[in-house]
Design a protein that fits this description.
The complex is a heterodimer of chains A (256) and B (256). Chain A is mainly α. Chain A has ten helices and no strands. Chain A has helices at residues 4-45, 52-62, 67-74, 77-91, 94-109, 118-146, 150-158, 163-193, 205-214, 224-250. The longest helix of chain A is centred in the N-terminal third of the chain and has 42 residues, at 4-45. The radius of gyration of chain A is 24 Å and the shape is flat. Chain B has helices at residues 42-49, 74-81, 99-111, 117-138, 154-166, 184-196, 211-217, 235-240, 245-252; strands at 4-13, 16-26, 31-36, 57-62, 65-66, 84-87, 172-176, 203-207, 220-225, 228-234. Chain B has a six-stranded mixed beta sheet with strand order 6-7-8-3-9-10, with helices on both faces. Chain B is globular. The N and C termini of chain B lie far apart (39 Å). Classes of the chains: A mainly alpha (256), B alpha/beta (256). The A-B interface holds A 149, 151-152, 154-163, 165, 169-170, 173-174, 177, 253-256 and B 50-52, 74, 78-79, 81-82, 84-86, 88, 90, 92-97, 105-106, 109-110, 148-150, 164-165, 168. The complex binds adenosine-5'-triphosphate and magnesium ion.
Chain lengths: 256, 256
Amino acid sequence: MSTLASQFPIVVRSLNLGFLQSLRLFFVTLIGALPLGLLISFGSMSAWAPLAKLGLRKRAATGKKTRFTKFCAEFRPISLIVRVIVWIFRGTPLMLQLLIIFYFPGLVWGNNVWGSGEAGRFAASCIAFVINYACYFSEIYRGGIEGIPRGQYEAGQVLGMKHSQIFRRVVLLQVVKRIIPPMGNEIITLVKDTSLARIIALQEIIWAGQAFMKGSHGISGAIWPLFFTGVYYLVFTGIVTLILGAVEKKLGYFKA
Amino acid sequence: MSLLEVCDLKKSFDKLHVLKGISFSLEKGEVLAILGASGSGKTTLLRCLNFLETADSGSIKVNGEELLGGKINQEILRKKRLHFGLVFQSFNLFPQYTVLKNVTLAHELLASERPDYKARKKEILSEINENALALLERVGLSDKKDAYPHQLSGGPCQRVAIARALALSPDVLCFDEPTSALDPNLTGEVLKVIRSLKTSDRTMIVVTHEMEFAHSVADKVIFMANGRIEEEGTADEVFKNPKSPLTREFFKSFRF
Ligand SMILES: Nc1ncnc2c1ncn2[C@@H]1O[C@H](COP(=O)(O)OP(=O)(O)OP(=O)(O)O)[C@@H](O)[C@H]1O
Ligand SMILES: [Mg+2]
């Protein structure tokens, strides 16, 4: 039986490596999901209604509002598809999505597209996390964008600005300011959610901690390394909280 | 040829006919006051002129050029909108920009599309800046140029909005109840600014419930009721000698 003092450096080295993998997943998810989420929010807000004209014509011809004309006016296919996708990814456990994305291709095509190594597990994890978080982010973006008063757009319009200019120069910073608090919540949840990748044996920090229970680096039956992983999460979420607070403070110069 | 000729302008929302054929004309340098009960269509009229709504039929001519009808895309709309300026009841200043930037932003964006922008950037931007400073001087806010909108009270905010609308030198400047959102003690300063803008070459349309102000500043007065022009004439004609019973009724509620 080795002492705690002799175990400690071995465990820390192993947990460091695990946490590095957790952080990689965290940053890849953030970098992928932040822009993808914005794209998805645009999709879910898409006003494209290809049947609107047909419905109007029909209504003009018959002079009646029917279920059909109502359907034509409200049928927005892009928005509909995107919202169904968002529903699926927000409505099922991320853990399940990880399992499906990792194992499903193998079941269908017979060979595992991800390969058998850590790189494949990491790639699959990244895809599941990016899509899942992009869906959550998209709802936050949507809330932020829809919360901007119409007067802001109209003020831009009467001043001859283009849509893109209004979005970039008038609306965007106000949206950012509004979404920082809910985004911060999601980002902190993401730090901890990276541990879900354990389910496909990604060698992140929980996996590394757990290894000392079964036996690793000559240590076995030790549960304290697993408990100790909490310190890593706490330190990192602490840093993230400080950064978010700083951003919030930086945008505190105006009120939106 | 009049500067602005509006002819038989109609607009409905669904089955609600809000404008039922509005016609009037304005000479360069004239001030038109539009009066009318709540819901009579005053805001809708201004929004149609500013192309925030598209009128269903009729004609809007500026300097003889027909603006209504024809192909509509973003670029065409922007050009049309630049003939008009609009000061909103609720100011709609851009909260993340200083007072000065609120005034210069649209002008800068517009200038960046000029062919000689790259070559003369510095010169152009400094012209825009000078212009904005002169406008802020006119509305009495030179000392507040570096403040943010939330640091100002309603009166100054509306004066900034006026300077912002003037920056692009629209042919016709419209005001939609510019003082309705203000405390009574702040109304005076805004009305004073609008009054001071009356010059031989600035054409303005003011929707207002400030009767004394309308009487003293307007060359023409229109009284609207139920989407129609119920009465129109010079300020003295309409205020001293209203012909329509509806107008008389309306004034009764304002007699002091
Ligand atoms: N976008 C819209 N969709 C449907 N109805 C509208 C819309 N905009 C205005 N209306 C309706 O049109 C009518 C006229 O509205 P408008 O705002 O032009 O009146 P107003 O004369 O400016 O009144 P107020 O003095 O209250 O500002 C109202 O009954 C209003 O509910
Ligand atoms: Mg109104």
